[in-house]
Amino acid sequence: MGKDVIVACDFSSAEATFAFLDKFTGRKPFVKIGMELYYAEGPEIVRQIKARGHKIFLDLKLHDIPNTVKKAMAVLSRLDVDICNLHAAGTTAMMQAALEGLTRPDGTRPLLIAVTQLTSTDQQAMEKDLLIHEPIDQVVMHYAKTAADAGLDGVVCSPLESQKVHDVCGKGFLTVTPGIRFADGDKGDQKRVMTPADAKAIGSDYIVVGRPITAAEDPVAAYERCIREFVD
Ligand code: C5P
């Protein structure tokens, strides 16, 4: 898979999701399904979106004992998603078990990427709640390296971290980056943002874009603008 724009379908029902996806009569966007939609609608929502011809990033961020994650990943693999993810904090053993669970009898599997330190966690919370005292950017890079060493395909990270992740983990290690805003757009609650064009220049492999597309007056035009800036 090459560079692409992944649209975060942060809707709470299948009805709202399909009303949104029905607008796309040309190119079918790569779709991110998160916890809210998946827990509301179950695996059927994945099958239905897949049947409409979309690629799917299932963003469920698994984190449990290795055996449980392995078995859960086997279920997601049968759902035929294209990308799924977990928390690198679950350790190397958990990540390797996840890869085993994901791998189908024919050797194929969805891409597996890791969440490093959530962007909602800052230095203070990390030190106080998790007793991790290293600088947060070093912690993020350490998690990325651990994920790469475990055999994962990439990480979710800020576009501002894409270059460093590639330097540390290699060019082929995927960076999937939310926090994208148009130059003339509203930042909303995202603090550190980048335009699709800048994310391309810095080397992000996939951008994840939610509200700049889902809340746009013309979502298809906003999506096409992302494609023009990031892919073409
Ligand atoms: O609407 P917006 O473009 O901010 O949506 C970004 C998407 O990426 C949301 O689904 C959000 O949960 C997700 N995300 C994020 N920052 C992270 C990890 C995931 O914004 N660090």
In short:
The chain contains eleven helices and eight strands.
Q: Classify the helix fraction into a percent range.
A: 40-55%
Number of strands: 8
Q: What is the beta-strand fraction?
A: 15-25%
Secondary-structure-based class equals: alpha/beta
CATH architecture: Alpha-Beta Barrel
Radius of gyration, taken over Cα atoms and rounded to an integer in Å: 17 Å
Strand count, sense and barrel status of the largest sheet are: 8 strands, parallel, barrel
Spatial order of strands in the largest sheet = 1-2-3-4-5-6-7-8
Count the domains.
1
Q: Low-confidence parts, pLDDT < 50 over ≥5 residues? A: none
For the record, give the distance between the C-alpha atoms at the N and C termini, rounded to a whole number: 15 Å
Give me the number of helical elements. 11
Walk me through this protein's architecture.
38% of the residues are buried. Strands 1-2-3-4-5-6-7-8 form an eight-stranded parallel beta barrel, surrounded by six helices. The mean pLDDT is 96. With 232 residues, it is α/β, with parallel strands linked by helices. The chain has eleven helices and eight strands. It has a single domain (4-230), classed as TIM Barrel (Alpha-Beta Barrel). Helix 7 crosses helix 8 (162-169). Cytidine-5'-monophosphate binds at residues 8, 10, 34, 118-119, 156, 178-179, 188, 190, 208-212.
List the helices and strands and how they pair.
Blueprint: E1 4-8, H1 14-21, E2 30-33, H2 35-41, H3 43-51, E3 56-62, H4 66-78, E4 83-87, H5 91-102, E5 111-115, H6 123-130, H7 136-150, E6 154-156, H8 162-169, E7 174-177, H9 196-202, E8 206-209, H10 211-214, H11 219-230
Parallel strand pairs: 1-2, 1-8, 2-3, 3-4, 4-5, 5-6, 6-7, 7-8
The structure holds cytidine-5'-monophosphate.
